[in-house]
Every structure is written in C-alpha cells, then in structure tokens.
C-alpha cells in the first residue's frame, strides 16, 4: 500500500515531465493501483490499434478510410512484403492474403475477412517482433514431435529466427544489466531475475545480473517512442516490447506502458495494466533464439491481453528452447514444465500516450525489432 501513495505523488509529477525524445525513460513501479482515484490515473481511452475495430465486416473490393493503416500493421509484423509504394485504403488481394495468413497463425478461421474474432485478436497488445521474417511463416507449421505410432504424437509450433541463431556453446553463463538511466527499483529488477530463472530451469544456461551495462551480454532498457533502432514504441498498449536474436542481447521495453511489477495485475483498476514478468519471460525467449508460436498457451504466443499474467513455460516453449540448447543437466529428467491455464481477462482499454514515464503499476516493456534487423 505504501506504493499507492507513491503513485499519487510521484505519478503526477512524472506526467508533468516531458520525456526526452528518443531516449531512455526513468520509471517508477507501483505494485497495486487498484485503489487509486481514477482522476490520478492516465487517460484510458484509445489503445494503439482500436480504430481497426471500425473495419468490422469490411470485405474485398471495398474502400474504407484507414485501411492503409491496417496494411502498415500487417507489413510491420511481416504479413505484407516490404513494398516501396504507398498503401491505399482499398481492400485488395494483398490485404486479403495477409488476413488469411494472420488467421492461420492465430488459429482463427481463415476467411480472409475482417470478422469480429479477427479484429479482436488484431487489437490485442503484443510483442513488437514480427511473426513472419523474410516472407516465410513457420508459426503454425505443426512440427511433429514424435514419429512413433505407439506414442503420443505432440505437435510443436515453436519457431526460430532465420538461420537459427543461438548463443554459442562456450557462452552458456550469460550476464544481464539494466540501463542505468532507467533507475529501476529493486522490485522491478527482481521481476527480470524470476523471468530469467524460468528459462534457466529447463536449459544449461545461467543468468547473472551485473552492474556493467556495456559489458553485459543482455542489455535491458525501457524506452519511449523512437529510441534509435528504427522500431519506435507506440505509447500505451500496441507493441509492448521487442528483443533481438542471439547474440545481440538487446531487450527493449516500452516505457509508456503501465507496467505492473508486483501485485495482482488481474485486479488492477487500470485497464491498460501490463504484467512485467509475463512480457519479460516472452522477450527472453527471443533473446535466446525463439520466434513466435501459434500455441496460445505458450509463452512465445505474440499477444497478451492487459491485466493478464502468463509466466509459466508451456511444453511448446520447453521443446523449442531445448532444440537449441538441450535440457538442464541438473534437473532430474524432467524436460518440460506444465503449461498453465491462462486467465484471460481481456481488456483492450488503453490510454493515449502520456508525456512522461510512469512505472506505477506500470513497469514496462517493449519488444521488438530485433528480428527486423537481421
Ligand atoms: Zn515476441
Ligand atoms: Zn528497440
């Protein structure tokens, strides 16, 4: 509860400060904002992609204002090839094809239409890393895990970056550090430590915090908007974070999100509250070499609704990471952890981006572009 008072005071002060452009953000985390008066909370009205909901029922051959923005969304996440021409507001074949592939990746009926189920998925907050790199998608390819007719035939959907980059064999003890300018509180740092341990438990890898940001293998930083890597963050919700493939180690989080570092995110009064550990576990998967998976229970599924906690590795995640690194030699034979059923308290509410960093009940994360820069 002591943090609530911090929010009421520090939070307001932060909102009055203009964030430095293209720069890291300072931040504060509040674990529980459920009892904070709404008047002290940031506005919650316009999540990044909410306008897409207006396209419900829009179909091929139609022209609708703003469809060009939807095409940009699909291009950003790899569903429309890079093209020099400007996008039009026409519902053309390229858009229909992108929608179909997206529906396939997210286990939706591949109608090629902007039906409500598809739009609901499209506007969910998500990782900024693309689902498709270099035009080929493996997200829902259904790799067979066992060819034995007498055994359970599991289907994996984990993916890797093009070329299957991984940390080299001689580099299994990795260090990580936080951007000093962020001045993260210990509670927030502890969240990352827990997230790393989830991956360490099922691999031979270890993760150790270090104070040397420049020397660390993995560099964690919260940024606002354009932060110099060509993948600007977009304010509240939308893209939350992005991470680069091995051995880059760059892990960026959107400093404008309402990050929850401690406390029960599912009961937050702020509809745009995002669980920091959930996003951290996902992004670390990228840092180690995993791409997105179409298995909704998996950590590497691209979207996460706000006010949702999802931190346990699913079988799909464990199988994928162990293809890259093998299992944990210190574990007693168990090669997987059970996936947990997810609480999916959907809330697509968001807020226009606030001028300053807020970590109250907001911790942050943006993941994103690593893959695009390969
Ligand atoms: Zn991702
Ligand atoms: Zn970045």
TrEMBL record:
Zn(2+) 1 binds at residues 227, 229, 242, 252. Zn(2+) 2 binds at residues 127, 282, 286, 292, 300. Gene3D superfamilies: Collagenase (Catalytic Domain). It is found in: Cell membrane. Residues 326-341 have a biased composition (Low complexity). Its cofactor is Ca(2+); Zn(2+). It is a lipid-anchor; GPI-anchor. Its main location: membrane. This is Peptidase metallopeptidase domain-containing protein. Ca(2+) 2 binds at residue 217. Residues 323-358 are annotated as: Disordered. Keywords: Calcium, Glycoprotein, GPI-anchor, Hydrolase, Lipoprotein, Membrane, Metal-binding, Metalloprotease, Protease, Signal, Zinc, Zymogen. Residues 342-351 have a biased composition (Basic and acidic residues). Can bind about 5 Ca(2+) ions per subunit. Binds 2 Zn(2+) ions per subunit. Belongs to the peptidase M10A family. Matrix metalloproteinases (MMPs) subfamily. One of its GO terms (cellular component) is plasma membrane. GO terms for biological process: proteolysis. Pfam families: Peptidase_M10, PG_binding_1.
């Amino acid at each position: 509860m002591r943090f609530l008072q911090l929010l009421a005071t520090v939070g307001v002060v932060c909102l009055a400060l203009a964030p430095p452009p293209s720069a890291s953000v300072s931040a504060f985390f509040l674990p529980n904002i459920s009892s904070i008066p709404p008047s002290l909370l940031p506005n919650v009205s316009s999540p990044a992609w909410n306008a897409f909901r207006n396209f419900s029922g829009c179909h091929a051959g139609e022209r609708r204002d703003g469809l060009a923005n939807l095409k940009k969304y699909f291009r950003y996440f790899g569903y429309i090839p890079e093209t020099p021409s400007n996008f039009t507001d026409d519902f053309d074949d390229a858009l229909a094809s992108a929608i179909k592939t997206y529906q396939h990746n997210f286990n939706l009926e591949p109608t090629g239409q902007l039906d409500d189920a598809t739009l609901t998925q499209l506007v969910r907050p998500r990782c900024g890393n693309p689902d498709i790199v270099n035009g080929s998608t493996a997200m829902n390819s259904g790799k067979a895990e066992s060819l034995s007719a007498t055994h359970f035939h599991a289907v994996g959907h984990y993916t890797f970056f093009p070329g299957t980059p991984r940390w080299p064999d001689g580099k299994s003890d990795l260090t990580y550090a936080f951007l000093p300018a962020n001045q993260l509180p210990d509670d927030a740092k502890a969240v990352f430590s827990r997230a790393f341990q989830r991956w360490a438990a099922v691999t031979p890898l270890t993760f150790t915090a270090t104070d040397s940001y420049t020397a660390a293998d993995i560099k964690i930083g919260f940024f606002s908007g354009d932060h110099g890597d060509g993948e600007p963050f977009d304010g509240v919700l939308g893209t939350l974070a992005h991470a680069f493939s091995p051995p880059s180690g760059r892990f960026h989080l959107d400093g404008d999100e309402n990050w929850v570092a401690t406390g029960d995110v599912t009961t937050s009064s702020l509809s745009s509250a995002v669980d920091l550990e959930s996003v951290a576990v996902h992004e670390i998967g990228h840092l180690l070499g995993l791409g997105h998976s179409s298995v909704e229970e998996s950590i590497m599924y691209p979207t996460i609704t706000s006010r949702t906690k999802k931190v346990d590795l699913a079988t799909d995640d464990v199988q994928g990471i162990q293809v890259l690194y093998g299992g944990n030699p210190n574990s007693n034979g168990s090669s997987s952890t059970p996936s947990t059923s997810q609480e999916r308290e959907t809330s697509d509410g968001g807020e226009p981006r606030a001028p300053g960093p807020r970590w109250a009940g907001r911790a942050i994360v943006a993941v994103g572009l690593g893959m695009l820069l390969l």
